[in-house]
Amino acid sequence: MASLLILSVLGYGIFLFKTNRSKINLPGSSEPLRLIHFETDGVLNRQWFAQEFYLVKGLKLMDLDIHEIKKDLEKHGQVKEATVTRKFPDELHITVRERIPVLRARLATTIGGKPEERLISREGVVYMGIEYSRSTLEELPYLGGVRFSIGPDGIEPVEGLPELARLLTLARTRFPAIYKGWKVVSLHDSGDATGVEGTVITVKSRKVKSVIFSPPDFDRQLGQLEQIIAHSKQRGIRVIKKIDLSLGDQVVVQDFPDLRHKRLRN
To answer: For labelling, which of 32, 74, 241, 249 has a CA lying 20 to 30 Å from the CA of 96?
Structure first.
């Protein structure tokens, strides 16, 4: 009987430890928090974490609710995923994966208020960007033609962004000279009810007032755009009114000649 009682108590103790391990303070295993090791694949830093998550000095490592810290970290739109672990006796280790911004947006946060800038990730998540350099932000085009929806957790993600993000990434990495002049990007429905094939993307840029793309063959379309811009430059046309690359094998080009430039050539 005594043996059975001892086993029962031991088993209950193990159960408590497994279900409440973040709250149990093991004698001799936990000391006051001394070091926070913060690692990220983006631009956030330890100082940002210290400001956002003030931890009381002298708090023991085992007194920290690491699950709650992870949950709070992932409430920040810029944080895609967070891992929080203890390293005994006195270190807290945090690893963060950040969202990658591909677009900017201007939102009026109050009626009649001054628009505030937000960033949009490749997944369509809209968030307030922190710690980005000015040069990084200025490289991002603005998203136009979208009405943002407000949900219980804030601004709802923008639909259709993965394909648009693929176009932007391809242009930035393989056609940087073209991408550099992109100012505003918009998503539209072409009227075709076949899903993504009915989506067109319009880009307003310095060299072309309006370029129309359609998924999925962005690589070919960007190559065509590069050739058209080079050919127009040879003809002395500095700005093109419209290039429609969404029609398969057909390409529609409307020139918009710079008359002053042409007079100089004559």
So the answer is: 32
- Please give the Cα distance from 49 to 54 (Å, whole number): 8
Q: Is the pLDDT score of 7 beyond 60?
A: no
Q: How far is CA 140 from the centre of its chain?
A: 11
Find tokens 């005994």 and name the residue: 88
Question: Rounded CA gap, 237 and 256, in Å?
Answer: 7
- Residue 217 has which token pair? 């063959």
DSSP secondary structure of 187-249: EEE-S--SGGGGEEEEEEESSBS-EEE-SS-HHHHHHHHHHHHHHHHHTT---EEEEEEEETT
Helix (H, G, I), strand (E, B) or coil at 31: coil
**What residues have CB less than 8 Å from 129, skipping those under 6 apart?**
78, 101, 117, 118, 119, 137
Answer left, alpha or beta for residue 112, where phi above 0 means left and psi between -120 and 50 means alpha: left
Kindly compute the dihedral angle of the four CA atoms of residues 69, 74, 79, 80, in this order, to the nearest 10 degrees. 130
Residue spans of the domains in the chain: they are: 18-98, 101-265
User: How does pLDDT run across 112-166, given as a tens digit for each residue?
Assistant: 678 889 999 999 999 999 999 999 999 999 999 888 888 888 899 999 899 999 9
What is the per-residue DSSP string for 93-124? Answer: EEEEEE--EEEEEEE-SSTTPPPEEEEEETT-
Q: Which residues does 79 contact at the CB level (< 8 Å), separation at least 6?
A: 44, 73, 96, 97, 98, 99
User: The tokens 């690359």 sit on which residue?
Assistant: 245
Which tokens in the block code for residue 265? 């050539």
CATH of 101-265, one of 3.30.420, 3.40.50, 1.10.10, 3.10.450: 3.40.50
pTM of the model: 0.79
Phi first, then psi: give them for residue 262, nearest 5 degrees: -70, -35
